[in-house]
Amino acid sequence: MTCFVLYSFQSQKKMFKGLLSVFLALVAVTSIMAKSEKTAVKQEKRVPQTLSRGWGDQLIWAQTYEEALFWARSRNKPLMVIFHLDDCPHSQALKKAFAKDKEIQRLADEHFILLNLVYETTDKHLSPDGQYVPRILFVDPSMTVRADITGPYSNRKYAYEPSDMNLLRNNMERAKTFLKTEL
């Protein structure tokens, strides 16, 4: 009988060690998973790359030219299309001035559908005087490109520089008045 009790005790001791090992393994796995979830949460807190690309993170930007045209037509707002390149110093300077100008940001937020592109579209109307960056064009809700709203440069009609923010504000005001009133 003592042998059986001793055997039973050793058997229970082995079972306890086995269960303890499984429990510790589960705790370790849970701990590792919790750390990876915390890391994922921390990574999500980083500012993600937005459609604004730095032109105004609080503004709502269309993802594609087609989507922007749809929004312009359905919301009866003019579309502002900004062509730029991330590695172009002129684009970077204009972006900084555009994002810093509170009146431009307000006008853009309240009165425009916004799209910034780092590639050319297939619509040749958006490059009436060539494909250069940076350039800003306006399209009214009837899908008419506002070729009459230009920047100050005769060789790059739709180009703006940081010193041209007053003209850009005035042109934004002009773009709010549509060429064709019937849609």
TrEMBL record:
Its main location: endoplasmic reticulum. Belongs to the AGR family. SUPFAM superfamilies: Thioredoxin-like. Signal peptide: none annotated. Keywords: Endoplasmic reticulum, Secreted, Signal. Gene3D superfamilies: Glutaredoxin. It is found in: Endoplasmic reticulum; Secreted. Pfam families: Thioredoxin_7. PANTHER family: ANTERIOR GRADIENT PROTEIN 2 HOMOLOG, ANTERIOR GRADIENT PROTEIN-RELATED. One of its GO terms (cellular component) is extracellular region. It comes from the Eukaryota. It comes from Astyanax mexicanus. This is Anterior gradient protein 2 homolog. InterPro entries: AGR/TXD (IPR051099), Thioredoxin-like_sf (IPR036249).
